[in-house]
Task: structure prediction
Amino acid sequence: MFVLDTDILTLFLRGHERITARRAQVMEEVALTTVTRIEMLQGRFAAILKAENGEMLLRAQQRLIETEKDLRQFMILVVNGAAAAVFDDLRQNRKLKKIRRGDLLIAAITLASRAKLATRNLKDFMRVPGLQAENWAD
Result:
């Protein structure tokens, strides 16, 4: 199984040629984490709340609907007991202190699912022991 990080998902949904081609090659299931779902929807919710006029509000609402539809095509991996235990272990690793919490959660869920991560952020994710990561974009 491959897990798409938020950056790769965003580019995939925009039709990024290299990512689309790589996705077509992968015979394994492709999933997202609950963290990516949160990150995608947070921006859409914020756009609705910050809309300055009716036109912007309608556009923001439409983008939320489209994003929710896009997310439904993927299995969402959630935080379960195994992922929480991996997260606790990763937080004890001093080398990972600079990795942002969302990325650490994505790594924990991916490791607990015995999956590989597709991301552009190899710099941070390659620090995580045991995590297999690939850059599908560059």
Summary: The CA atoms of residues 58 and 124 lie 37 Å apart. The radius of gyration is 16 Å. The mean pLDDT is 96.
